[in-house]
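Continuing the batch. This is chain 6 of the set; chains 1 through 5 are on the previous pages. Same settings as before, nothing changed between runs. Recording input and output for traceability.
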Amino acid sequence: MPKVSAKRQITLPADQCRLVGIEPGDECQSFVADGRITIVRQEPGSAWGCLSHLEGDQTVSDEESRQNAMERKRDQTP
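Output for chain 6:
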């Protein structure tokens, strides 16, 4: 059974990694729900399919977009 190191690192068992297709160097994400941590391999381009119907507004810079999003979030906070 893997143990958590002092640096909060966990070595995943090789057989489990093989079952889910995790290879050395893969990027993974972790999520917490109901007191459990779930680790999933990041699929390259995985967001592309769910965002493919959207078109960006080339007249708005990334910074302007971030600022607008932060302002909308602030406006929603009670």
